[in-house]
From TrEMBL:
It is found in: Cell membrane. PANTHER family: ABC-TYPE MACROLIDE FAMILY EXPORT SYSTEM PERMEASE COMPONENT 2, MEMBRANE COMPONENT OF TRANSPORTER-RELATED. This is ABC transporter permease. Residues 20-232, 469-590 form the MacB-like periplasmic core domain. The lineage of its organism: Bacteria, Pseudomonadati, Bacteroidota, Bacteroidia, Marinilabiliales.
Length: 789
């Protein structure tokens, strides 16, 4: 019996190929979108859960403010140890800290290796975070100050084997040993490393007194967690207040669970680019929206299909078919179509997954058997979609009596058409809102990437990965670089322009200590401002004569304004326990993202060449390939073995918006899919309505109506629906995008243009779909039209 009904269902689908293909194809696209976005969302929600103790691991966040505004969160904090912190809170099992070690170079034999990502850690790091040793020590991994832990990839890179425990390598001019090789930590980690360096081997790195360390706390099991976290916050807040309250800072702290670091941080995590839980919600909404539009198509097409088969249903009921049996048949058929759509959806997902992974900047995989979301969720989705899609048509169409169907005296079939129209209007409203969102978000991204930043970043190159000898020889390298005709200016800095800054405090000389304020700091060398085209409002930049004993600073406008005095130039400040003069004020420039307002920034001049991290060059040519060879050759004359890298400063300043660009791209594809699905639904509905009005069209042509008049008559109906969708969509799109723009301190104003363009594009596509059908109907021979009924 089941096989017989299955054959009947398949034969029914084959008899109405166009609508069946549209229905199944539409559902398949919707399901593919759900599968792809679900894999991505699941990936984002799984961050840090590979740590077996992740539910008991918490990250400690510092809060500081000196402006009277909200406390600002910092993921770095004071140096905490058992002695000064955790011994007083018995609920703490372990406390461990991390200090960034940046990318370092190593040497094995006569081979040099670069770009090894190092972090300094406490010796109990592996007792908090999950590490899987594969060679070398299996316990006490970080107990020896001269032995480092490396991951599997680094072992293969340095030694060509994972069995590298006990092997030696050179770093910082010293010889070290591999304590253990551990498995690479999963990509779903909020921290990352190639090499772990124990603080015990680097006392200087363990002894910083400012906010430098990332703190993770492992709580004991079976404790009152809320009480423990409150004790931690109170204890640490007091330590911050002891350290900074003296300077008039307001302080505080909070803890966050490890699994929240990736998606729910109100600061920018430095180890890895973070996600955003609101973006995840948007992606989930897009997936649901696409599936919903596909289901609406399904309902519309099924409804009009069965509207044409009412006589068959009436005859079945007349010869004894029960309503429940008919409903079961309907639902069985829609579940069959939904299952076929799922198979095609899986094929589409598998095909698009590599492209989708690149788009979202993630390594995503579809693992059916090991992933309950897919193993159980996909069959469940097929059944649920089949039931939802088929339930309304099944219930409404089978409720009529056989006599009413056969006599054609149905009173309520108009309701089906009204529902179909309402669903089509919903589809076009959703498509219009998505299209408007794309246009507005693209305008904002273009604005952020092209706005005048107040700094001339074009044709400025940064050379990094300098060796010790290259840093010491900076002055002679600068002289040689300036001899290259294409190089106009050369400077150096400790901080990357447009990158992170150090945090510093100072106050006007002679004022109370409570007047101390926080400032971002860039440490630079002479010619820095000319190289980057930063404009001076007053004063002048650092000179070579100042380098050895510079007691001056330069401020941006925001920093000068924060001092609250009329003429800051020439004033003295108390900085680094010494008296410094403000020798210049520069115009504000956007050194951070446009999401944030320009913060107070100070520049200091440093003398120690070993602190030089970047050599900056302003060049006069766009032929970078040949020029970069010349530039790097100059560095090689000092250290032939060193491999130096280059960065374009314009990229550093402009490419801060990857997350927005990825979301915008995903929204673009989602919008294309939703519009495509809406148009498919409109095509089927148009086909149905034209068939219904065939006789009317024939009569109108016989009575003298032109083809244009008939086409306009038919299209006016659809144009009315699109107009309604436009009127509903405008306030919705405006509200959503206005809310989205508020996250940027600097943003565009919403103009009518995106709404008009989105409306025109929606109407144009609808015209193309509907126009073809209506034009064909209007050109039909009226004799054939009248004969058809």
């Amino acid at each position: 019996m089941l096989w017989y009904k299955l054959k009947l269902s398949l034969r029914s689908l084959a008899n109405d190929k166009i609508n069946s293909i549209i229905n199944i194809f539409g559902l398949a696209i919707g399901m593919a979108a759900v599968i792809l976005i679900s894999i991505y969302v699941q990936h984002e929600l799984s961050y840090d859960k590979f740590n077996t103790k992740h539910e008991r691991i918490f990250k400690l966040i510092s809060l500081l403010d000196d402006t009277g505004k909200d406390l600002t969160p910092y993921e770095i904090g004071l140096r905490l140890t058992n002695e000064n912190f955790s011994n007083e809170i018995p609920e703490i099992e372990e406390i461990t800290q991390i200090l960034r070690g940046y990318r370092q170079n190593a040497k094995v034999g006569d081979k040099n290796f670069t770009q090894i990502k190092c972090i300094y850690v406490d010796t109990n790091f592996h007792r908090v975070f999950s590490l899987k040793p594969i060679s070398g020590r299996t316990t006490h991994l970080l107990s020896n100050p001269n032995e480092f832990v490396i991951n599997k990839s680094t072992a293969l890179k340095l030694f060509g084997t994972t069995n590298a425990g006990g092997k030696e390598f050179e770093m910082f001019g010293n010889l070290y040993t591999v304590s253990a090789v551990v498995e690479d930590i999963p990509l779903t980690s909020s921290y990352d490393f190639d090499m772990l360096l124990p603080f015990s081997g680097f006392p200087r790195q363990a002894g910083h007194r400012s906010l430098e360390y990332y703190t993770y706390i492992l709580l004991k099991q079976d404790i009152n967690k809320e009480d423990a976290l409150l004790k931690i916050e109170n204890k640490y807040s007091k330590m911050l207040d002891d350290a900074f309250g003296y300077y008039g800072e307001k302080t505080g702290s909070y803890v966050q669970t490890l699994k929240d670091v990736h998606l729910r941080s109100d600061y920018n995590p430095e180890f890895k680019e973070a996600g955003n839980i609101n973006t995840i919600y948007v992606h989930i909404l897009l997936a649901i929206l696409i599936l919903l539009i596909a289901i609406i198509n399904f309902i519309n097409i099924i409804t009009v299909q069965y509207d044409n088969k009412l006589n068959q249903i009436g005859i079945k009921k007349a010869i004894g078919a029960e309503r429940n049996d008919l409903i079961k048949d309907f639902l069985g058929r829609t579940i069959l179509m939904s299952s076929i759509a799922l198979l095609f959806g899986l094929i589409i997902s598998e095909t698009l997954m590599p492209f989708f992974g690149n788009l979202m900047n993630r390594e995503l995989k579809i693992e059916y058997l090991s992933n309950p979301l897919l193993f159980i969720g996909l069959p469940f989705m097929a059944i649920l979609v089949g039931l939802i899609s088929g339930l309304y048509p099944a219930i409404t169409i089978t409720k009529y009596t056989p006599a009413a169907i056969i006599k054609g005296t149905l009173q309520n079939n108009q309701n089906n058409n009204l529902l179909s129209r309402a669903l089509v209007i919903f589809q076009f409203t959703a498509s219009f809102v998505l299209l408007t969102a794309i246009l507005i978000s693209q305008d904002q991204i273009n604005y952020m990437k092209n706005v005048d930043l107040g700094v001339e970043t074009e044709q400025v190159i940064a050379i990094n990965n300098l060796s010790k000898t290259q840093r010491i020889a900076y002055s002679s390298i600068k002289d040689e670089l300036l001899k290259i005709p294409e190089v106009s200016l050369v400077s150096a800095s400790l901080h990357m322009p447009g990158g992170g800054a150090s945090g510093q405090i100072f106050r006007l000389y002679g004022t109370d200590v409570e007047a101390t304020k926080n400032y971002d700091e860039y440490r630079v060398r002479p010619d820095y401002f000319k190289t980057l085209g930063i404009k001076f409002l007053e004063g002048h930049e650092f000179t070579e004569n100042q380098v050895d004993s510079c007691k001056s600073i330069i401020l941006n406008e925001a920093a000068a304004k924060s001092l609250g005095i009329d003429d800051p130039l020439g004033q003295f400040v108390w900085f680094h326990e010494d008296k410094y003069e403000i020798q210049g004020i520069v115009k504000d420039f956007h050194y951070s993202s446009l999401r944030e307002e320009i913060a107070p920034l100070m520049f200091s001049c440093f003398s120690h060449n070993l602190n030089i991290q970047f050599v900056l060059l302003k060049v006069k040519t766009r032929n970078m390939t040949d020029l970069l060879v010349k530039i790097k050759d100059q560095f090689k004359t000092i250290d032939p073995e060193r491999v130096n890298y280059h960065l374009f400063i314009d990229d550093i300043f402009r490419n801060k918006y990857h997350q927005e660009e990825r979301s915008q791209t995903l929204t673009t594809f989602s919008s294309i899919l939703s519009i495509l699905l809406a148009l498919l639904g409109l095509y089927s509905l148009t086909l149905f309505m034209v068939q219904k009005r065939t006789k009317e069209i024939g009569i109108r042509k016989v009575t003298g109506a032109s083809i244009i008049q008939i086409t306009s008559l038919l299209f006016s109906t659809f144009l009315k629906w699109i107009t309604i969708a436009f009127l509903i969509g405008v306030p919705i799109a405006w509200y959503i995008m206005n809310h989205w723009l508020q996250q940027f301190a600097y943003h565009i104003s919403i103009t009518p243009l995106p709404f008009v363009l989105a409306g025109l594009v929606t109407a144009l596509f609808a015209l193309l779909v509907v126009g073809g059908q209506t034009w064909k109907a209007a050109n039909q021979n009226p004799v054939d039209s009248l004969r058809s009924e």
